[in-house]
Design brief:
The chain is α/β, with parallel strands linked by helices and 400 residues long. It is built from 13 helices and 13 strands.
Length: 400
């Protein structure tokens, strides 16, 4: 019997470098082939003391194969009964304001500690009034380019109301495929300001897909919109005068003059007396913080100079109520928290905790303005009427 000895072969320096290169190449190929909807459970966040008292998952979902846009999401599970409680997809307006805004400034389980920035990471605390007490919520960075959402091809950033709404439907189909235990939960769409315009459109596409069998059944029950824009000036802005009267911005006498002379139309004055009283009312409204009327009026940064029509169009929009603070924000302004969010989200510890893909996003901006966006839905009134006729539930609310 002969025993053969096998000697380990020593690699030359050139062979070692070649093997290393091949291993890196294989890893890169594997990264490309991995499902883009892979998710991660986040138990700790920088700036939050201790483990999170709720279930948080983050991840990406590829919503278009050719140009590769990947939408980033934060999923917070209901703290009550996740197996039966409603599931809400929440969009922040803008367009292109991050879903993180919804998570820390609107309906989510976190909020920033309002304290002067001292060079340390801004602190987060639990929000005891979070909707996650009774519902699971997906906070989505949509359209692509919002928050941590990104695309492999720059062409993918050129979207509009219709195309981005369809991408949200694609996101939902893939997300439910990856989370089948939530398919039977009552499902609602929710969002604020400009998202209030596209929410009924997305709901329409889901309803249509359910009826035509184009997708797996989504248990859509209705939608929730806060400070919504519909695209119709009369619908969106005609209520501002009764609202201003209701909250005490204008007097009973001034309101009565408006009623007498404007014939119910507070958008386009039809006579000189109506025009005069509306100018007076607009001047009074301009003296308060339109997004948070009980707060101080603070200096904010508009993306560019706007016309009078633009100012009117901003009355209920995300641009009007959630602009970035000035370079030197003051702590008495709610927008100071936006300043803190930019610092927090751009810290490497935050990105590591959220499992952000390296190299996909440069500076995180809460509401980014530099990408093209097409407003190709004249208004959402027709979609709203269609959904109401079909029996879907709707909640329209004023968030401030």
């Amino acid at each position: 019997m002969t025993t053969k000895l096998v000697r380990a072969r020593t690699l030359t320096a050139g062979q070692y470098h070649l093997l290393t290169l091949l291993l890196h190449l294989a890893a890169a190929i594997l990264l490309v082939l991995l499902p883009s909807s892979a998710s991660a459970v986040v138990t700790h966040l920088p700036g939050f003391d201790g483990p999170l008292p709720f279930y948080l998952e983050t991840g990406y979902v590829d919503v278009e194969e050719e140009t590769g846009p990947e939408l980033f999401y934060y999923f917070v599970e209901s703290e009550r009964s996740p197996g039966t409680d409603p599931l809400i997809l929440w969009l922040t307006g803008g367009p292109r304001c991050s879903g993180f805004s919804g998570m820390v400034f609107e309906v989510g389980p976190l909020k920033f500690v309002l304290a002067p920035y001292d060079g340390n990471l801004p602190q987060l605390v639990y929000n005891p009034y979070s909707w996650s007490k009774i519902a699971s919520i997906i906070f989505l960075d949509s359209p692509v380019g919002s928050g941590f959402s990104y695309a492999r091809d720059p062409k993918a950033y050129d979207v509009g109301e219709i195309s981005s709404s369809l991408q949200v439907v694609t996101f939902l189909n893939k997300w439910f495929s990856d989370h089948p235990s939530y398919v039977s939960n009552p499902f609602y769409l929710g969002g604020s300001s400009h998202a209030g315009k596209v929410i009924p459109v997305i709901a329409h596409y889901i309803s249509e897909g359910n009826e035509q069998g184009k997708q797996q059944e989504i248990n859509l029950k209705g939608y929730i919109v806060g400070n919504p824009i519909t695209g119709s000036d009369f619908v969106d802005f005609n209520s501002r005068v009764p609202y201003a009267h209701g909250v005490g911005i204008i007097s009973d006498q001034l309101y009565e003059v408006a009623i007498k002379n404007c014939n119910g139309d507070y958008v386009i004055p039809t006579n000189g007396l109506c025009d005069e009283v509306l100018n007076t009312i607009n001047n009074l409204i301009s003296e308060v913080n339109q997004g948070y009327i009980l707060d101080d009026k603070c200096v904010i940064l508009a993306p560019k100079p706007v016309s009078d029509d633009g100012v009117r169009g901003m009355f209920l929009s995300e641009e009007g109520i959630q602009l970035e603070p000035s370079p030197d924000p003051t702590i008495n302004c709610f927008s100071y928290c936006y300043y803190l969010s930019n610092i927090w989200a751009n810290d490497n510890r935050t990105r590591d905790a959220l499992r952000i893909k390296q190299g996909t996003i440069g500076e995180w901006v809460r509401c980014i303005k530099r990408f093209p966006y097409t407003f190709d839905i004249p208004n959402s009134i027709e979609y709203i009427l269609n959904l109401t006729t079909k029996g879907y539930r709707a909640l329209v609310m004023r968030e401030t």
